[in-house]
Amino acid sequence: MTSQTGGDGAQRHAVATHAAVDTDRRERDRLSDLLELGLLNTRPEERFDRITRLATELLGMPIALMSLMEGDREWFKSARGLDLQSIPRNLSVCDYAITQDAPLFVEDARADPRFSQLPYVAEAPHICSYAGMPLHGPHGKPIGTICVLDYKPRVFGARDQVLLQELVDWIEHEFELDRRIAAHDRHVARLMDRDPSLPVATRTIALERLDDVLMSRARNGQDSAVVHLDIVNLGHYEQTYGEQVTSQTVANWLAALQSDPADFCYLTRLSDTEFVGAVPGMADMEPIRERCEHQVEYANKQVSSGQAQVAFRVVGGMALHGEHGRHASELVARARQAHHRAGIARGVVLFSETINRQLLRDRHIRRLFETALHEGGIHFHWQPLFSNRGDLLAGFELLARWHDPELGDIYPDEFIPVAEAEHNLSRALVEYALDTAACQIAQWRRDGSTAPLPYVAVNIPGREFYESDFYDCVAAVLEKHDIDGGRLVFELTERSLIADFEVAARTMSHLKTLGIRIAMDDFGTGYSSIAYLTRLPLSIVKLDKSVVQRLEHDAVARELVRGIVDLAHGQELGVVAEGVETRAQHEWVRSFGCEYSQGYLLACPESLTLAGQRVANRPAEL
User: Fold this and answer.
1) What's the whole-model pTM score?
2) Cis peptide before 537 (omega within 30 of 0)
3) How far apart, in whole angstroms, are the C-alpha atoms of residue 108 and residue 517?
4) Fewer Cβ atoms within 10 Å of its own Cβ: the N or the C terminal residue of the chain?
């Protein structure tokens, strides 16, 4: 018995020792993650103070804290409603959230034995309720919290948890920006041979100089904003005039912008199409933003080089030094995000909290989308297309739909760009859509109807036509369901294609050997180019609904549609009019000779069940 007891004691001691070692290791890893951020004992920052102020507003609680847990103390990077710098860790409610790496909600601390004896609960200021979530460092370790507190009991619900998670995402987004900036700074320190002809060196030097300008102006008490400009139609002019002439034209354009230091304190090239600089700042940035727009427009009109007369289409974004970031790389990123997220055709957009929230939502959607895609959360509606000869069913367009339990209905114009931004997600969605379409075509064939099968149109991102394995991907889906590609149509938009027609044309020609037809979607929106119709092996042109819906009242739209239809028929292409919503529109497209129509007048997007009934009830002959 003595020996057994001694053995049990040794075993318990070994388990306790192992647990202590494991705890020490986790704490070392956690502190390493915290120290990598470089935020401890730094001055307050408006970007984090803004978040704690917003936390009190959103959750209706008087106190909000952003804390970092270092060793035996909890240090507050931002505090709203309490004048605190730090407290001992053993008195911290947040330590429970960090230790468990999980949200913590305390509705009444006075009744909770874990917290009822804490000094600030039992005594002034008499904190009563608490809601907090852990913040994670660069390597995913819990390093601190964002929390809200109240002096009275509080019942927390699902909305509170969602709002806190949004704030966590925001703060961790800031951490990630800091990490990238620090990595960039280390890279600059290691970059010894900085040849300006190398893109990485050009970018590094440009950002270093921009940092110098911003810091110099700040030391002199002068506010600044960073501007990022992007020429979005440069490839068109390189095709027309050649690379050398276009490069000289861009140099003339840049010199015109640099000629007036009253507008740009500094302006330089960042890449082939991107330019960055600093502009004077002031309390109201709108006049500065407008002046930048006018300067860009003015310079556009002056651009020429020899025989080249061009009108660059330039978009731009601005971010305020201090308010939106401290370093050039961070500010340039946010200025770029401003015009990319705004989705405008031209102009200069000022970064804002609205844009930042949109970016955070995009990030949240991206995380949810991947799960939804793999777990069946994405489904498809089937929108019928009809022949204009007898209004008979000709096909369906497959439209992705997503209802998320947390966010509700998320519309395609929001989640499709998020998916297409990453090739693995984009390809997964394409494969899912192809598999859905092919599976249903195979089922209709097995049903044994004597009527011709309707075709199914699938939207394909333009980038897929530049991927070497896309043909193999499509062929594998057709083989899996034992069908040919004759009942499939791939739709792509003009704006999704890049300028390398030859590569896209080869892929399309290869796909046509499988029987697949290619449709150019959204034609006539202003991006149109005859080159698409004459140089790509297309089968169908789809008139954009914005043009179709102007037919009743706009003579110019009618002439445009008439011209597109004549041009398409001259290339032996079929024409689909989409967005047909009135009988008058339907009569116009019929009169122009459009073979097919699609729109709410004829049928709305519908479930697979209804689509199947429509197929079963179609006449035997089209």
Assistant:
1) 0.57
2) no
3) 65
4) N
Long-range contacts of 251-260 (CB under 8 A, 24+ apart): 252/302, 252/303, 252/304, 252/305, 253/299, 253/300, 253/302, 253/303, 253/312, 256/298, 256/299, 256/302, 256/303, 257/295, 257/296, 257/299, 260/295
387, 383, 380, 436: which is closest to 618 by C-alpha?
387
Burial label, 274 (beta-carbon count in 10 A; 0-12, 13-18, 19+): middle
Domains and CATH numbers, the chain: 46-185 (3.30.450.40), 194-351 (3.30.70.270), 360-616 (3.20.20.450)
Summary count for the chain: helices (H), strands (E)? 20, 22
Can you point out the beta strands (E) in 358-407?
378-387, 393-404
Burial class of residue 189, CB neighbours in 10 A (0-12, 13-18, 19+): exposed
Q: Look at residues 480, 475, 477 and name the one whose alpha carbon lies nearest to residue 513.
A: 475
Residue 267: CB atoms within 10 Å: 22
Q: 128, 150 in Cβ contact below 8 A?
A: yes
pLDDT in tens, 480-495: 999 999 999 999 876 6
Nearest to 539 by CA among 521, 556, 551, 555: 521
Angle (nearest 5°) at CA 291 between 289 and 296: 95
Q: Which residues contact 334 (CB under 8 A, 6 or more apart)?
A: 317, 319, 324, 325, 351, 356
Q: How many CB atoms lie within 10 A of CB 89?
A: 16
Q: Are 53 and 64 in contact (CB under 8 A)?
A: yes
Sign of CA pseudo-dihedral 368, 369, 373, 378: positive
Strand 63-70 to strand 393-404: parallel, antiparallel, or no bridges (unpaired)? unpaired
Q: How far apart are CA 366 and CA 411, in angstroms?
A: 13
What is the C-alpha separation between 388 and 543, in angstroms, rounded? 14
106-115, 132-141, 312-321: least confident range: 312-321
Distance set, CA 437 to CA 140, 518, 540 (Å): 40, 15, 19
| H/E segment holding residue 107 | none
